[in-house]
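hey so i finally got around to running the thing on that chain from the lab meeting. sorry it took forever, my laptop kept dying and i had to restart like 3 times. anyway pasting the input first so we r on the same page abt which one it is
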Amino acid sequence: MGKRSDYRAALASFPPEQWAAYLNAESGLPGPRGNIELAEAFADVADPELIRLCASSQDEYLATCGAVGFGRLLADGEPHAAETLRALAADPRWRVREGVAMALQRLGDADMPGLWAVAEEWVDGPPLVQRAIAAGICEPRLLGAPGDAVRALDVLDRITVSVSGMEGQSRRTDEFRVLRQGLGYCWSVAIAGAPSEGFGRLERWAASDDKDVRWIVRENLKKARLARADPAAAERVAEVLNRAGP
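ok and heres what got predicted. didnt touch it at all, straight out
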């Protein structure tokens, strides 16, 4: 694991009351990229109470580390862990929201049925919660089994249905923008795991009269993984999209 294991060893060399200072010193912030490996290492080894404390922090990086750590608590069956993560999924800080997606992926690594149970609870939630579950499940390492990829497609279908049904005022919010952006890549990840099923669904969405849905399809067609999965199918989707409109 390289850096992640090095960070675990570094954390172990400090008393827990010094961890927050170390996390901030090594966070990589301010800067374009937070220290993801350190957040993962923290989630591996932190005491549950420290995870909860960090998750409630006003400091963005500490809260991100706490969010990732809640993925371990959720996988361990801690009561109310999913409830806390759902609240963090709507956090105004984008790094914290990314931490929630990483937490869900950590759950999937340990317990895919558990992840699907969370997906069922979150899929009809508000846009940022929908975005969190879409990003959480649409991770290539989690969708190696075709059955899991098809379940991811089912979730994305339900979320995209909700997008197509949103009123104009709702579409002008930052929350909708974040959801739309997430769907702009999530579909390609799920389709790469189940191409025969996924391309048919994407083709149906390409014919939509909803401009935001067509934008989602168009963004996914830009992803190289779709062309690798089935070049002819990707071309068919593009043709349907072009006929449907800009």
